[in-house]
Amino acid sequence: MPRRAVTHKRGIEPLRQRKFILSVAGNMKVLITFALEGEFAPWRAIREFRSESRGGARVYVCTIDGAEIGVAVTGVGPKQAALEASRAIRNECDSLSFCISSGLAGALRPEYRIAQVLAARSVFSEFPHPDLTSQLLPSSQPLVSFAAECGATVVERFHTAERAVARVEEKHHLGRTSDAVEMESFEIFREAAACGIPAVAIRAVSDGLDEDLPLDMNQLFTDEGQVSIPRVMGQVALHPQAIPGLVKLRQNSKQAAESLAQFLDRYVATVIERTRTLEPKATAATR
């Protein structure tokens, strides 16, 4: 019988925890998603990833401490995240141990600094989904705990937006209920939950609360969620005063991506090590 998506927060979490415990007894397989190649590039420079095609999805694969690590670059935005996550996750539904929604995010609280790594206890979608009874999905608590152990700042909630949030006023409004804003995590969680796969959202801060983005970033992306250089050049020609802000954003994003790469490399190795120490107990629990 095919697995059915769990549609309520209280139903998702026990299933995730059970899958997490059962997965540690076998060979671990991990999926990590980024929105853009640039977010993934610093980690790709650390590890020898090879490119593979799986079920129509392009996945970059390497091995860390005997575990298979796969990376999918989804493109920016919830629509592209849902499409690519569906391809990457459902193709490995019965074999994935856990999933990480990763990349960059905008801070919604003044205490978060550029390049700080945040791990969210939950992710929120600003629009309801007909197949879900909640706009809030939880991270796996063991995975959040491991993130804290590795030095991430644990926060309550990421806000998954439909569009790039550019203005300080809007950031302050979202900051009443959330800690950081991004555009993909809820859809990644939704696909993972459909397969009972534990998931966690881990992001590095690329822009602070009290700074506008230099351009309307929504004008820069293609329909596939990729940055269009011609569109960037066109917007710069129309708004040359944005150039210093774009340079600063690029520098901040590079710093954040490098910080995230170092964290993920440490984090994945830690989760593998910790779960292997649980293997005898997990094996006994499944008998």
Q: What name does CATH use for the topology? A: Rossmann fold
Q: Which descriptor suits the 3D outline?
A: globular
- Uncertain stretches of 5 or more adjacent residues: 1-25, 280-287
**Rounded mean pLDDT score:** 85
Element-level helix/strand string: HEHEEEHEEEHEHEHEHHH
For this structure, the quaternary state is single chain
Lateral strand order in the biggest sheet: 5-9-8-6-10
Number of domains: 1
Radius of gyration: 18 Å
Structural class: alpha/beta
Helix content: 40-55%
Largest sheet: 5 strands, mixed, barrel
CATH architecture: 3-Layer(aba) Sandwich
Ends apart, CA distance between termini: 22 Å
Characterise the protein shown here.
The chain has helices at residues 9-23, 37-46, 78-90, 141-149, 168-174, 185-194, 229-238, 243-277, 279-285; strands at residues 29-34, 50-54, 57-64, 67-73, 98-107, 117-125, 136-138, 153-160, 180-182, 199-207. It has 287 residues and is α/β, with parallel strands linked by helices. It has one domain (9-274): Nucleoside phosphorylase domain (Rossmann fold, 3-Layer(aba) Sandwich). Strand 8, helix 5 (168-174) and strand 9 (180-182) form a beta-alpha-beta unit. Helix 2 (37-46) crosses helix 8 (243-277) and helix 3 (78-90) runs parallel beside helix 6. The longest helix has 35 residues, at 243-277. Mean pLDDT is 85; it is low at 1-25 and 280-287.
